[in-house]
Amino acid sequence: MSKQPSIFGGAAIIASVCIGAGMLGLPTSGAGAWTVWSTIAITLTMVVMTLSGWLLLEAYKHYDTRASFNTATKNLLGSGANIINNISVYFVGGILLYAYTTASGNILSGLTESFFTLDSRYWSILFVLVFSFLVWHSTRVVDRISVLLVIFMALTFIFSTFGLTANIDINTLLDKTNLGSNDTNYGIYAMGLLPVALTSFGYHHSVATMRAYYGEERKAKLAILVGTGIALAIYLLWVLSIFGNLPRDQFAPIIAEDGNLDVLLAALNSVIESESVKHTLNAFSIAAILSSFIGVGLGVFDFLADFFKFDNTKSGRAKSWAVTFLPPLVLSVLFPLGFLKAIGYAGAAATIWTCIIPGLLAYKSRKLPDGEKGFKVAGGMFTIVLVIVFGIVTALFHFLSMFNVLPVFKG
């Protein structure tokens, strides 16, 4: 009898899919909300995103374990909804590649400026040409490099957060040093954090994988919960570590630069006394961006290869490489948006396939003749409505903030 996969194994997969460069945007996007309200917003997002993954599991129960997002959406909601869903999946992948490309150039330019000067756009080009080659070469290479990067990220994260938490100032963490400021209405700014937080819990393309991994829904449900719980713990540790070291009013120059990571790292380096912690923090940031770049890049690469029916030969993979990496690179060089702004767009678009579509799929699933049998998420229509409304409101908050209809924290 074959051994059943462990819950922790599946949870580790979910956590690793969630955790990436998106987490680097959480401190800046949460600066206005600060410690308490950022914790509430990120925790609420984790709860809703866990429920939405469970709703996907409920919809998948009617299909073979090899069935995916595409199969269920097309069958239950029709071709139109499936096209919209696929476009949103591609848009999120493309905008994330754009964000990582721009951020890599800015960080590498900042790290090397004491040795020689090279424009950040040239660094972005070099970054893409070198590391997108791994995706072009093979999935096996990406697999091996990703394992090394995850190990490296774990070690640098532990060391950097240990160094940061050891120096947390409780007055800074609770914003007691900013008592003279007129801007202490933290709760109103939590709305602007939601799109970035949502991006940080985007594991939904792996829900079908979890179901196939365990061969049933209930263990997959538990693995998703533990996985998102691990991601939540790491995000909160990361955010609190930074909020305890970098005062709220010092986020002003970072926000003015649209949350560019090189500016955040420079600000953190100015308040961290330990050189080893500074270097480890920089190494973690680069590793997080690289890991996310090749992970997202592989997903978009395979998606577009299937969409355009490119074969798996060297020339076919070259075509897939070109349509995957060149558009984000060209846009990054010509129109460089700030990291946080790009991640916000990704979060707004991701609400379609992380909240709205899962809610609609579960609703349609329950209308089928055997829809009430087997695995079913608790809470009835309330859970479905909660997930869909959360998605709509999160996207709405992003666009209202973008047009300055909602208050935006400036530092």
Automatic annotation (TrEMBL):
**Know the name of this protein?**
Aromatic amino acid permease
- Where is this chain's protein located in or outside the cell? Cell inner membrane
- Source species of the chain: Otariodibacter oris
Described function: Involved in transporting aromatic amino acids across the cytoplasmic membrane.
Example GO BP: amino acid transmembrane transport
Q: Keywords assigned by UniProt?
A: Amino-acid transport, Cell inner membrane, Cell membrane, Membrane, Transmembrane, Transmembrane helix, Transport
- Write down a Pfam family by its short name: Trp_Tyr_perm
Q: Which InterPro entries match?
A: Amino_acid_transport_2, Trp_tyr_transpt
